[in-house]
Amino acid sequence: ELVYKIQGQTIILGACSTIRWLIKFLFVSMNFTQTLPSFSPPCRRQDVPVLTPWLAPIVWEGTFSRDILNAQYVQRNLVTGVVTFAVEKYWFVIYFLSANQYFLAGHPVNFYLFTDNPEKIPPLQMAPEKRLLVIPVQNDPRWPDISTSHMDIINAYIHSHFQHEVDYLYSIDINSQLLAPIGVEIIDALVATISSWHLTPWYRNKSYERRPASRAAIPEGHGDFYYTASFYGGSVAELYKLTRACSEGLRADREKGIEARWHEESHLNRYLVQHKPTRLLSPEYYWDAELSAPPILRTSQIYKDVYDTQNDSV
Ligand SMILES: CC(=O)N[C@H]1[C@@H](OP(=O)(O)OP(=O)(O)OC[C@H]2O[C@@H](n3ccc(=O)[nH]c3=O)[C@H](O)[C@@H]2O)O[C@H](CO)[C@H](O)[C@@H]1O
Ligand SMILES: [Mn+2]
């Protein structure tokens, strides 16, 4: 009889929860469309991947609302830093004029310019929320190749200065020009830009270092996107780890007398295969001027290398 009673209770309990579940289901299905905000069409794009297999967003023009992101960003009271180098060659005018106008417009940004020739910098009128800080650097004899020293220098300055001054830090090539706004949609813990070569038939020209002797080596069959070293960033803590790992890899390679295929870019890619970026920027965010732009790019190339800058000393 006891067993029978218990079974009866179970049946009643079971029926109760089924009814409750049914009511809930009806309620939810009736209200579902009302509880979800409706997004206006520009938030969707069918022609490009917008999510990686590790569920990081890939930012393309037309996939986000800058107003929503700006409002969220402002609440966090953040300062973003940008590091850039002008050693031996000088391209700063176009870069800073365009960055001043388009880079995180309306938000505080510290631009850190590493240069071996501070007195050559012309007076630049920056927006009130933007600061230009010039940091003298010597052409370091330990790093005969200019761009391979970047990781080492950034790492040292994160430790000594940037960690106290900014929340997020981005590294951007100075021989480039912004042609459209770059906003807070780039802000995340670890952010990398898919190389523009990826969208062209010549994508094989930019590929990983495969030789096992290099610390930048990525074994055959491994890897996901190929990222450019011209534009990457993230939180100061993540950038500290990234620049330390890359600089150690570059140093180890140099001691062995080996140079990775695309120098610091190979080491960056090696790091990012192991430590997946939390956000990817589409090649719209850095377009190589030597490549013609495919129609998939919505904006006319947000950022691009200034074409042949070799003799351009502005
Ligand atoms: C010269 C150089 O670094 N090339 C790197 C860069 O090519 P890139 O074609 O992107 O080289 P780049 O000429 O844009 O140089 C990269 C950045 O280094 C700085 N800079 C460069 C030259 C110079 O004399 N003074 C100076 O300050 C400057 O900030 C410049 O924006 O990407 C390649 C992969 O795609 C490789 O990783 C190369 O190592
Ligand atoms: Mn470049």
From TrEMBL:
Keyword Transmembrane helix (UniProt): yes
Cofactor: Mn(2+)
Membrane topology: Single-pass type II membrane protein
Note accompanying the cofactor annotation: Binds 1 Mn(2+) ion per subunit.
Localization of this protein: Membrane
PANTHER family referenced in this protein's UniProt entry, alphabetically: GLYCOSYLTRANSFERASE-RELATED (PTHR10462), HISTO-BLOOD GROUP ABO SYSTEM TRANSFERASE 1 (PTHR10462:SF55)
UniProt-recorded name of the protein: ABO, alpha 1-3-N-acetylgalactosaminyltransferase and alpha 1-3-galactosyltransferase
